[in-house]
Design brief:
Helix content: 40-55%
Largest sheet: 8 strands, mixed
Radius of gyration: 23 Å
Strand order of the largest sheet: 3-2-1-4-5-8-7-6
Number of helices: 14
Distance between the termini: 20 Å
Structural class: alpha+beta
Length: 366
């Protein structure tokens, strides 16, 4: 069965499940209990398949799909608001978890984390609550996502109205992925740009026994800055912090209080030096691999570009908070579905199961 067919059938199966429905129906369980023109599953499929055409045209198109009496746009809007946005969040997460993910780097999945800001509809209610400044009249949302770079798929995302703390959202995602049965036992390397590194985030990764590569700024840690000023290219340093330092850096006092951190100096095309920190061993991952892993992080930037300019994540259909969150997770779902379609267009290309000892540079192009 092709990947996109499995993708659609998984959504249909989940949306038809009674337990799934009862978990995600708003205002009690009675809304979809009685016989209605629109079932819970119908509304899910309508929301995912919405092409952002005028509402009445969407309603006419969907009525033909149901081969039933004509359904009004107002009825569809009302039905959508009876479903929590968490239904679409779970559909996004579960379809991402079960999608084929054959491409790895030295046997590891590469997960990049980054944030994205976008604009919400300019309604008085949203403007009053979610404008960044008093002078700004455009309400915003802030999302932080985890992206499987080599398989080009979003696997987790946290959506926040207004401006958020990216590190806090990233920390919550790390917890969620590390505890998820689909991901917790697989080899992973997490990649972060220089806006994310902190002692608390490193502590979180170490507690979950996850590998990472981070680009750090000149204001990160005094031990790393000492390396930056030295002539070393690849060196392991020791980090240890007192109770006072832990408090200042929001680190759990009962957590890991000391660890070794590998610092790697890489040269940019501009001639400037950048410092990457990691807990990957030098024997298994020499400097060139660390540089390549970080270079591959650019895939999440490309993913955000497509999400904004091809999937049109900021072209919201709804104007309520629940509906806006629905629209956001539907956009991620559509992005991943498109990735499945593109992957299944080349069925004769062999799967890359045996890439555990090969660099990404050795893999055949897609």
């Amino acid at each position: 069965m092709k990947a996109e067919t499995r993708f659609i059938r998984q959504i249909q199966k989940m949306a038809s499940d009674v337990e799934f429905q009862s978990k995600h129906v708003r205002d009690g369980e009675k809304d979809f209990k009685r016989t209605r023109k629109l079932t819970f599953s119908d509304v899910i499929m309508y929301t995912i398949g919405n092409t952002r055409s005028p509402l009445e045209l969407e309603a006419q198109r969907f009525s033909k799909y149901l081969t039933a009496d004509e359904i009004s746009g107002a009825a569809l809007c009302k039905a959508r608001q009876k479903i929590k946005y968490t239904a679409f969040e779970e559909l996004f997460e579960q379809t991402a978890a079960s999608a084929p993910k054959d491409k790895r780097f030295h046997g590891y999945h590469l997960y990049a984390v980054d944030g994205m800001k976008g604009e919400l509809p300019k309604t008085p209610e949203l403007s009053a609550k979610y404008c960044e400044t008093e002078k700004c009249k455009t309400p915003v949302f802030h999302a932080v996502s985890t992206f499987d770079i080599l398989n080009e798929m979003f696997i987790r995302s946290k959506f926040h109205f207004g401006t958020a703390d990216e590190r806090e959202l990233a920390s919550k995602m790390i917890d969620a992925v590390a505890q998820d049965v689909y991901y917790k036992d697989e080899p992973q390397i997490w990649i972060f740009d220089r806006g994310f590194p902190s002692l608390s985030l490193i502590q979180k990764l170490l507690e979950h026994r996850l590998y990472f590569v981070m680009r750090v700024s000149s204001s990160f840690l005094k031990e790393v800055n000492a390396f930056r000023k030295s002539k070393y290219v690849d060196r392991v340093i020791h980090i240890e912090y007192s109770e006072r330092r832990a408090t200042q850096n929001h680190v759990h006092s009962d957590g890991i209080s000391q660890f070794d951190l590998r610092c790697v100096r890489v040269k940019l095309p501009s001639g400037e030096d950048e410092i990457l920190v990691t807990n990957l061993d030098r024997k298994d991952f020499p400097k060139r691999d660390i540089k390549e892993i970080y270079r591959l992080r650019w895939g999440i930037e490309t993913g955000f570009n497509y999400l904004k300019n091809a999937v049109f994540v900021e072209e919201f259909v709804s104007k309520t908070e629940n509906g806006l969150a629905q629209d956001y997770f539907v956009s991620l779902l559509v992005y991943n579905f498109a990735t499945c379609i593109c992957g299944s267009m080349y069925p004769n290309i062999p799967k890359k199961e045996n890439t555990s000892t090969r660099s990404i540079e050795e893999l055949p192009p897609d």
